[in-house]
Fold this sequence. Notes:
Blueprint: H1 6-20, E1 25-28, H2 34-45, E2 49-54, H3 58-70, E3 74-79, H4 85-98, E4 104-107, H5 122-150, E5 153-158, H6 162-165, H7 171-191, E6 196-203, H8 216-225, H9 234-245, E7 254-257
Parallel strand pairs: 1-2, 1-4, 2-3, 4-5, 5-6, 6-7
Amino acid sequence: MIWNDAQGHEAFTQGLRSSCGSPALALVTGASGGIGRAIALAFAQKGYGVALHYHTRREEAALTAEAIRAGGGRAEIFAADLTQEDQVEGLFSGIEAAWGPVDVLVNNAGTAWQGLLTDMSLAEWRQVLDTDLTSVFLCCRRALPGMIGRKEGCVINISSMWGQQGASCEAAYSAAKAGVIGLTKALAQEEGPSGVRVNCIAPGVIRTPMNGHLSADDLDALREETPLMRIGDPEDVARAAVFLAESPFITGQVLGVNGGFVL
């Protein structure tokens, strides 16, 4: 079902709040990937309407939306290059026209680049920083005014444990994800008086296509360095995202979902 008017969206919102105390509509960026898909499914299972963003991988996003709808949930897909200001505006405008305002924004879209910093071009550096950090800025800047006006809302930014401690041969990724952590803490202080919460998840090694370049030996070594002695699953991150969305007295925090890899 699509809500096309403010009254309908408000009824939907109030209905969800009365049943689970949660906002009604979640936007998950990068929902065509492993973690994004798991987060979208987890919010849908909690009764949220879910807007699934994708950039180029339409089929994967569409399959996730179909799975949500097959389970009785509400989901639609929306395309945008989140490094482009006009496309971010188009994304939010499209969601608002269909459903109303975004209550929970999950900034999950990202990319990685492996190699020595001395071998990295300026264009490659900018691509990583724009995809992993500038996109978070643009989406937050677009979502926050409405949340501030309503005196409620939640932003969850997906960083990385490498943003906490840095990773060899992933300097740009580490820098961008550290920036996401800093942005999270600053926005939590800015928006707290308006009732808007901003938190961050820093996943460890998660079994996703982004880590598909790792060999079996690499994964075994990382597993042995992890106190819980396993590689994480996307669902581990998804559970953390729902927890932060439904925890009204938590803001400005970085929740490590890494099995103890970073303590």
